[in-house]
Amino acid sequence: MFQWLAVSTNTYHGFSLEEALEGIAQAGFRYVELSCVPDWTLHFRCDQAGEEDLRKLRQKLAHFGLSVLSLSAHSNLATEEGCAYLVSALRCARELGARVVNTGTVDREEDEDLLRKHLEWLSREAERCDVFLALEVHGDVFSSGRKLRELLEKVQLPRVGINYDTGNALFYGNVRPEDDLRVCLPWVVHMHLKDKRGGYRVWDFPPLGDGMVDFSTIFRILWEGQKDIPLSVEIEFDGRFEHPCSFVDVAVQRSFQYLRRILEEGGYW
């Protein structure tokens, strides 16, 4: 278990894909979560990708000895545009051999019915692509695993699950991820390993091991539940993004070393 350790290229927000891949590979990781989010971290644009774009991307990945484990394609699923972009991401995931496409949901509670309707046909597309669609613990509407579990119990779609973000559970939901994860574990198909410092709504997501998330407990919960899922490190720092790329490289290296240590201590490595 725990063989699917990746880093989200969103960790390299503001830097190029090449810089992200180089830093991730040098730290010791072999997988990436490719950030494909318009108007945020857009390292690959899914809705404009042709065969040549995919070929060049595969070439870059091979150069650094990396594979794409998942895609981050956060979209507003209350809109047709958001859903259309997500379909393009699912198709890119299929071509790249990725297992999961992560997304946001909706920004308003009154859009939940529309979300459920859209998820029905998005799930069918995910099935055709042999990919899981993972709704992230993110934002005000679905700020915890418990809330996403309630949604998924209603829709009952086998290709739709949860991307559990440990830092977002604290930031948006004000809940301990070690407790909240247990509530939704059967629905979790992907996880963001994200640490957190400070109180509720304080944007401070440091290298793993520097915050308040008890990752030893998180891994024990996953182990006991036999959840062999993609695990993607995401570091978003203090939100100012004024640091050089070398600063991110060090944070990723430290996170790899921390993960290796606690996995060895738990007997998982």
UniProtKB/TrEMBL annotation:
The keyword Nucleus does not apply. GO terms for molecular function: isomerase activity. Residues 24-239 form the Xylose isomerase-like TIM barrel domain. Keywords: Isomerase. The keyword Disulfide bond does not apply. Pfam families: AP_endonuc_2 (PF01261). It comes from the Bacteria. This is Sugar phosphate isomerase/epimerase. It comes from Candidatus Caldatribacterium californiense.
